[in-house]
Design a protein that fits this description.
Strand content: 35-45%
Strand order of the largest sheet: 3-2-6-9-10-5-4
CATH architecture: Roll
CATH superfamily: Electron Transport, Fmn-binding Protein, Chain A
Number of strands: 12
CATH class: Mainly Beta
Number of domains: 1
Helix content: 10-25%
Order of helices and strands: HEEEEEHEHEEEEEE
CATH topology: Pnp Oxidase, Chain A
């Protein structure tokens, strides 16, 4: 069955089609104090085990994008089954921006000043290894410096415009 919609531009059709891809929700945290910010991505993946590196795609129009280059360190955490409210805050629901997005969750701060979600299924403190610009986004490559895990936290997924929960 051909479901192509000729009324949409190619970028619009692409965005619509991508709603069919199940994504694991990850949170990128960056900055401190009044410049603290963060965003939710569904593009976070492992890049290398030796040395340990991850990558995520970040929209260059995001308020976090300039902070990543300036700060040089960031947190990357998988969101768990209980983290939909965190995902909504960091997605800007209710107009929340910057440090206000951190309210309502428990955080730990690493030696490098990176804030990590205390009860995330997994969380990495990373140094920015590279940012490669392509189209509207940058491919953010992070070298993992510190790891935290909570295997009982489940997972938060995003599919067809809605959050979905995966638990043991």
């Amino acid at each position: 069955m051909n479901t192509e919609n000729r009324k949409l531009s190619l970028p619009e059709a692409f965005k619509s089609a991508m709603r069919g891809l199940v994504g694991a929700c990850s949170l990128i945290t960056v900055g401190q104090g009044e410049s603290a910010n963060g965003l939710v991505v569904t593009t976070g993946i492992s890049l290398s085990a030796e040395p340990p590196m991850i990558l995520a795609c970040v929209n260059r129009a995001s308020s976090c994008w300039p902070l990543l280059g300036r700060e040089g360190v960031f947190g990357w955490q998988a969101l768990g089954a209980a983290h939909q409210p965190v995902a909504e805050r960091f997605s800007g629901k209710g107009g929340l921006q910057g440090p206000a997005r951190y309210a309502g969750a428990e955080w730990v701060t690493t030696d490098s000043g990176v804030r990590l979600l205390a009860d995330a299924p997994l969380a990495f403190a990373c140094a920015v290894e590279d940012m490669i610009d392509r189209g509207t986004h940058s491919i953010l490559i992070g070298r993992v410096a510190q790891i935290r895990t909570d295997p009982e936290a489940g997972a938060l997924l995003y599919w067809d415009g809605q959050y979905r929960i995966l638990q043991n």
